[in-house]
Specification:
Radius of gyration of chain A: 32 Å
Number of helices of chain A: 3
Oligomer: heterodimer
Strand order of the largest sheet of chain A: 1-2-3-4-5
Number of strands of chain B: 0
Distance between the termini of chain B: 80 Å
Largest sheet of chain A: 5 strands, antiparallel
Strand content of chain A: 25-35%
Number of domains of chain B: 1
Number of helices of chain B: 2
Chain lengths: 174, 84
């Protein structure tokens, strides 16, 4: 009878036995651990979603900026065909705003892609790799710049931005 | 949670056992209501996360398609320019 008193409350006694309290605590603990884990997973997911949304927004800003700068390149008819200079993780194109002294510069170093028109430099972070190259048509004529990017999530993105004008020499040579 | 009507039930109960039963019932009701409110909050939180996830996926696809569209447009404009 004494043993039963420890584990089962009698009808006329007030309060709970140790077993009831232990079982209640166990159930509450299990629920609490589950809720804690779910909240942790949800918060991690929310942080990742925020990162993804920010990366997408940055990518669109980069796209706008690159197309805007490339559109300001006006090549004169005497400009040579291979006008885009690529090397050492950098890409340079002269004749920004039609001026041979001004150039569009793209550099990629340590995950940061920098775009510059000589006055304003804009940096875009969080890229694993970037391939900078001239955009060419089937006849290997350069009509713009091509930037192949790989984000932190490993998803590749290719941005092809054309110049504001194509060398007339390219047209006449066709 | 004060327990709605707990004192009324206690006063109306004819016997001590009945009174205690009424107390237990209302306390249980309080616990169930509290758990229900917590579950609703948790469901709202999870549905918010789910909505954000679906928005993120849609935004991702939209950004990709926009960039591809602009790339195609750039090439198309170049071709048109050279044809003239």
């Amino acid at each position: 009878m004494r043993r039963n008193r420890w584990f089962f409350s009698r009808r006329n006694e007030r309060g709970s036995t140790i077993l009831e309290v232990v079982v209640a605590l166990f159930i509450l603990s299990a629920l609490g651990i589950g809720a804690w884990h779910a909240v942790g997973v949800s918060l991690r997911l929310a942080a990742r979603l925020k990162d993804t949304m920010l990366a997408n927004t940055r990518l669109l800003q980069l796209d706008d900026r690159l197309r805007g700068l490339a559109g300001r390149i006006y090549l004169p008819f005497w400009a040579p065909d291979g006008i885009v200079q690529v090397g050492n993780g950098a890409l340079n194109v002269p004749y920004l705003d039609g001026d041979p002294g001004k150039k569009l510069s793209l550099t990629f170093q340590e995950g940061v892609l920098s775009l510059s028109d000589g006055k304003v430099t804009t940096q875009y972070e969080d890229f694993q790799s970037a391939v900078l190259s001239p955009a060419t048509d089937e006849g290997h004529r350069q009509y713009g710049v091509s930037v192949g990017l790989e984000g932190k999530d490993g998803k590749p993105v290719l941005i092809v931005a054309r110049f504001g004008a194509t060398p007339l020499g390219s047209i006449s040579s066709r | 949670m004060g327990g709605l009507g707990r004192h009324d039930a206690r006063e109306r109960s004819p016997s001590p056992r009945g009174r205690r039963g009424a107390d237990c019932g209302y306390i249980l009701l309080d616990v169930v209501v509290a758990l229900f409110i917590v579950m609703i909050g948790f469901a709202v939180f999870l549905s918010g996360i789910s909505l954000a996830a679906s928005l993120s996926v849609r935004q991702n696809a939209r950004v990709q398609s926009m960039i591809e569209e602009r790339n195609a447009h750039a090439k198309e404009q170049m071709v048109l320019f050279q044809k003239e």
